[in-house]
Amino acid sequence: MNSIPEIFASNVFNDDVMRDKLPKDVYKSLRKTIENGADLDINVANIVANAMKDWAVEHGATHFTHWFQPLTGITAEKHDSFITPVSNCHVIMEFSGKELIKGETDASSFPSGGLRATFEARGYTAWDPTSYAFVKDGSLFIPTVFCSYGGEALDKKTPLLHSMEAINEQALRILRLFGNTTVKRVNTTAGAEQEYFLIDKEKYDKREDLIFCGRTLFGAMPPKGQEMDDHYFGAIKPRIASFMKELDEELWKFGVLSKTKHNEAAPAQHELAPVFTTSNLATDHNQLTMELMRKIAEKHGLVCLLHEKPFAGVNGSGKHNNWSMLTDTGVNLLDPGKTPHENAQFLLFLVAVIKAVDEYQDILRISVACAGNDHRLGANEAPPAIVSMFIGDELQAILEALEAGKSYGGAEKKTMEIGVHVLPSFPKDTTDRNRTSPFAFTGNKFEFRMCGSSQSISDANLVLNTIVAEQLCQFADDLEAADDFGKALTCLIKKTIKEHKKIIFNGNCYSNEWKAEAEKRGLHNYSNTVEALPHFVDKNNIRLFSKHKVFTETEMYSRLDILLGIYSKTINIEALTMIDMMKKQIIPAICEYSAHLARDISAKKAVGDFIDATPETELLIKLSTLNKKLYEDEILLEKAIKDVPVSYDSLEKAIYYRDNVFSLMQTIRSIVDEIEPVVPKTIWPVPTYSDLLFL
Ligand code: ADP
Ligand code: MG
After folding, report:
1. What pTM was computed for the model?
2. Cβ distance 568 to 562 under 8 Å?
3. Which of 31, 373, 514, 525 is the most buried (most CB within 10 A)?
4. Domain boundary pick from 523, 551, 579
5. Ligand 1 atom closest to Cα of 332?
């Protein structure tokens, strides 16, 4: 293998390659587009396209594809070859600027939430030059945004880019107020810690529920779960280690900054964390990471499960989304800094985030709502469904002192004055202790811990960007109009702390006391997807997203419709899978064992009354009783699915699926999980949790 610095980003048409392959003026003009969103001249695009094609062909590509992120949450691609015939028997490899910039795709099968009538099936993809093109599996992948014929966004990338623009604009206004004239751009950054399970492929293939739903619909707990904490950060087994090694090497080739890997809390669970980058790239990189995890696992005879809750009873998988703001001059705006001036600026950005999270708890909750995450949020390993913030005791004490105008500090207490005194430093380890908080300040960034492992991080980030942009906008409006900046700043920070400190909670978010306390504070507690989603189109939220040009109202309604539809479809697939497994595998297996028992009982009875058949008889009674209930519930489940009223709109349908289908599935599961431990392994039709979780 070549050295890592040599292979790093070797598949990427990145800035270095551009500088090397493009004429100077073309490179400059492309940089302008990348940095300021300036329109790309078609002549420039032609030259870039040609250079990209030559480079891609050198790297083994024969095709190109516009790579986009439809609302299914995964990526989509359609490949065209570079060949152009020049005569009957000759072709040349060609790629024009037009093909680079814009693609047209028959998009009728992608969800549009009613935005695009099926007769107008055209969708357009447009190059996003802020994310680099790369070569993979013989094709040049061009990151693109995806929209309808009418220009409405049909993807997860467009609103994310708009939200980055919004926060850039507002953060620059704030920086100018602090006298900063050098910063030209503020980007948001994201680092997504990805959790996942690896299980044996042969065993996976024997479970329809894993194949169709990505999670087990049945499964009794093995004698040992995660209670010993011996898997967490434990030694990595050779087969897993070789998977991780290959994954790292592949990711590095695509410029993904894969950095940390370790075993997680549940058996067979692992985590990968990259070094953070801009939200846009981090989103693309996370999609690539998930794709490569799946692909490389198969090469090692494994399957990578990215579902939020593949196994009941052990931890599910999330994705911690670390978030901050970074200037083009390299300053992290959530870093407290060392001077009173820097501290004052930090405090303003900090309270902007606090206010944003408090005012828009609902859309943060919605950004992580999906059927899979419903199993996780509020269960004991994950943050609760209630959004709150953790800022650590030290910062808490500082904010309290500021609000009350009281003194702060150890031996030599002093009154904290914004812009006059330097904040004491609060090292990362004092701010990182609370692992139960959904939204924690960890020294120089926030960590949003509610994202599901299978979800695109675009939603969480576009929400964070937009809600913070809104607060910065309000602050800038206020401060720009002030006569005395220092006074107005102090006043604004104090007022914000006072009005929004109710969102801060530094205690144990898993506890029942917190639930009660949160209710008292008036915080939202949307315990499931169907309860959360409709609030997406609350007036306040429509106003917010329209104001910052992230979504139009139409786009929001269409997204809501799509998300509700995905929820119902997910539950429907799960229910159908459950029915299939029950009919073809579980119920027949129970019948088979019951027949065994019945034969044994009569054989014993035939020998004579002095032989005791009590164990067999009692087991048979237990199994027959449970099996009867199972059989009846299976019929009810089939009926529930058939009876979904056709007149229902997407919300009514989702409610129906939650209350009539999902709840019945839970009951059925609990019966099967009671039966599984008493049926011999030789008869039980599918691999058990013990087989799956302990490789
Ligand atoms: P932990 O497991 O304690 O949460 P890790 O070190 O595994 O911490 O992960 C922290 C993540 O936060 C990494 O992906 C890291 O790159 C990311 N991160 C660090 N600084 C920033 C920042 N300024 N903006 C966004 N993400 C960041
Ligand atoms: Mg973390």
Report:
1. 0.95
2. no
3. 373
4. 551
5. 23
